[in-house]
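Exam review. A common question shows you a sequence with its structure tokens and asks you to describe the fold in words. Practice with the pair below. Do the first one on your own.
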Amino acid sequence: MDAGTLAWYRRPAHWVRRLYDWTLGWADTPYGTPALFVLAFVEASFFPIPPDVLLMALALGKPRRAFFFAAISTAGSVLGGLLGWYIGYGLWASMGEHAACPEFGGGAWLFDHVPGFRCEVFALVAERYHENAFFTLFTAAFTPIPYKVFTVAAGVFHVPIATLVSASLLGRAGRFFLVGGLIWRFGPPIKQFIDRRFELMTVVFTVLLVGGFLIVKYAL
């Protein structure tokens, strides 16, 4: 169905669905496992679709390797987090100052083009990093909060790499092994439910996203 014929409120879910289907398509190729690593890597710094989508597809195809795919996702994401840290530490200023929040001294391209990067969110992340960087990063790594915002911010605000790696490893492993374990245990019904209720799942994901930010704002 053409997005132009849909009601305006259904168009975001339609666009996400197309990107979701494109991501799933890699599971049907010989490059599924490398694609999972690359997806986990780039999602940690700029790509909008989480690797859980491809992780689920690959694990459904080979349930006995579900935990192997979870490990691949974890490794790619943690390494991608280091790329995000470098972007914040070494490239942030070269992107130019954003008119809405020049106090951050750079990152204009990310604020303009990458979902999740907003001035108010970045200000909140900065505040939480000054209070407890480890648990802030762990929360971002485990929940649907855009992890990429936190990895880049870690570089901008000079969070130690050891803190980034340890918190990310715990959070990302916890998340991906949970997904892999659910697929290993319950299998196809999970994917069938997502396919039938995709728009509902998009709403649920948005609610969880907002909830994750509220946790960062009020609980940490």
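Now try the second one, then compare your answer with the model answer below.
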Amino acid sequence: MWRTHFKVECANETLRQKLAARPMFNAYEAFNSLDINDDGRVTIDELKRMIQSRGYQVGEKEIYQVVDKMDKNKDGSVNFHEFREEMVPKSPNKRC
């Protein structure tokens, strides 16, 4: 179980580092593309709709887990501050 956890976290950090290295990546614009109704938060339904619009099928459990991981204040949605915190590399000077 721990091996899987560390492997997933390493993959997440690698993605964060790649996004940070892209000069055209903008966390605010990325967040706004997820916030379909422009209310300043991304809900489970909005995230699921975006993923399905890209041709991927995901279950409620998986979407809930993603939102739950990012949702620091546990209000059931992700605001921009929570989203940005998840996008910023946790160890900017090294890779896994």
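Model answer, second protein: The chain has a mean pLDDT of 92. Strands lie at 41-43, 77-79. Full marks require stating both points clearly.
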